Amino acid sequence: xxxxxxxxxxxxxxxxxxxxxxxxxxxxxxxxxxxxxxxxxxxxxxxxxxxxxxxxxxxxxxxxxxxxxxxxxxxxxxxxxxxxxxxxxxxxxxxxxxxxxxxxxxxxxxxxxxxxxxxxxxxxxxxxxxxxxxxxxxxxxxxxxxxxxxxxxxxxxxxxxxxxxxxxxxxxxxxxxxxxxxxxxxxxxxxxxxxxxxxxxxxxxxxxxxxxxxxxxxxxxxxxxxxxxxxxxxxxxxxxxxxxxxxxxxxxxxxxxxxxxxxxxxxxxxxxxxxxxxxxxxxxxxxxxxxxxxxxxxxxxxxxxxxxxxxxxxxxxxxxxxxxxxxxxxxxxxxxxxxxxxxxxxxxxxxxxxxxxxxxxxxxxxxxxxxxxxxxxxxxxxxxxxxxxxxxxxxxxxxxxxxxxxxxxxxxxxxxxxxxxxxxxxxxxxxxxxxxxxxxxxxxxxxxxxxxxxxxxxxxxxxxxxxxxxxxxxxxxxxxxxxxxxxxxxxxxxxxxxxxxxxxxxxxxxxxxxxxxxxxxxxxxxxxxxxxxxxxxxxxxxxxxxxxxxxxxxxxxxxxxxxxxxxxxxxxxxxxxxxxxxxxxxxxxxxxxxxxxxxxxxxxxxxxxxxx
Length: 612
Prior knowledge:
Blueprint: E1 2-3, E2 6-7, H1 61-96, H2 99-119, H3 121-125, H4 131-157, H5 159-162, H6 164-186, H7 189-216, H8 221-243, H9 251-254, H10 256-451, H11 456-611
Antiparallel strand pairs: 1-2
Helix pairs in contact: 1-2, 1-10, 2-4, 2-10, 4-6, 4-7, 6-7, 7-8, 8-10, 10-11
């Protein structure tokens, strides 16, 4: 800008504080004082990363002041109208506590601030000393507009029920709106503004499609919602065409978004009013039905009063039953624990029985082995018995033969004894003869002595005869003694033979007795053999029974373990029943209290109509 033959540099823009501007206006205005009749050269350098329209206009201060007054009046009216609509809907939100009104108020407030930031009004009046925030407020509030408008649309159009697919897409745009808030504060302005522009370009058709589908489904307030967004989009379209220099900058093109927002605020308020009207009509219908139902309900209350008394009585009885049931459950739990302990002892006994049966099976096997040994021994004894029987038969035979020989020997000894007695008699006779010969010899000697010499030869013969007689007598005596001794020996032999015969007879009798006993033993051995066979059979049976009992005992043990587990489960169930009974008892107390409250409410309801 020329000044005193030189150039002066002046700067204005969104990145500089608002207070440095020469004229306090939302527009970029430079004050110049050209000299009349002289050509003045001005250089203008514009730098921006955003779309920027540059409608250069040379105007006097008075003309600018006049235009600014009309513009402020218009903006005041529109901003005031929109703010009034925001406050109106906020009051309704507070009174109705309707969530849709809350989202609508937040959306309209965010949109108004966005327009003020876009037009520079917010930078002029709200944050003039914060150019950084003044620049980033536009994408930030665009993100808020996307978030709150999506929340309002989902709640107002009931997209979750009417169009679930659109509802999910709107929910996704809420997430993108949150991302736009972060980008507006964290990344470069150009990236943030491009993201928000693309977001709104994609978001608007989805919103219109959802509103159209809901309207087609028969929801009348959706039509006002659809028209309101068409009005706003029309204003945005006019503003966009102006921004891209397709349309000239006029009051309508410059403030098209604000005008569309004003129409939208009205139409959305009408839509909400129509929604309330529909709800009121529905409430009237419901109220008419409710009056009838109230009458029916009063009748029901009359019955309920009677029923509440009965219910209270039943609940008291049920409480007693539950207490009894709880006591029974506790006793059941105690008995279950005792049964579990008994089952544990029984399981231990079963294990002992199983061990004993295993030992019994082993002992049965040993009995079987011993029975086999005994059977073999029995066979050997039988063979030995047969041999003994054969030997006894031989003994009996030899005994009988010995008895016969002894009988013959006794007879021969008798004969010898008789011969001995005869010899004795002969010897006695010889002795007598010897005595007579001696006597004769003595007489001969005497006669020879008498004869003298004539009798000497006779004396010699007599002497020889005497000697012979003496020798004969001596020999006879000696023979007699020998014969007597032989006779005594023969007598003793006869006695011994008789005794031997008697002993042989006794031996024969003993042998016969032994034979009889052997027969008895043989019979007993036969019986023993049969008993051993039966014992073997019984041992096999015992072994099989032991096996069966062992298997049964194992199954019994498993059954006992399962029974113990079942009893434990029963105990747990009993404990659960006791706990449930306690809860039921509490519920019954609550039910009694509620029944009392219900009775009181019914009495109050009965008193209220009478008071009216």
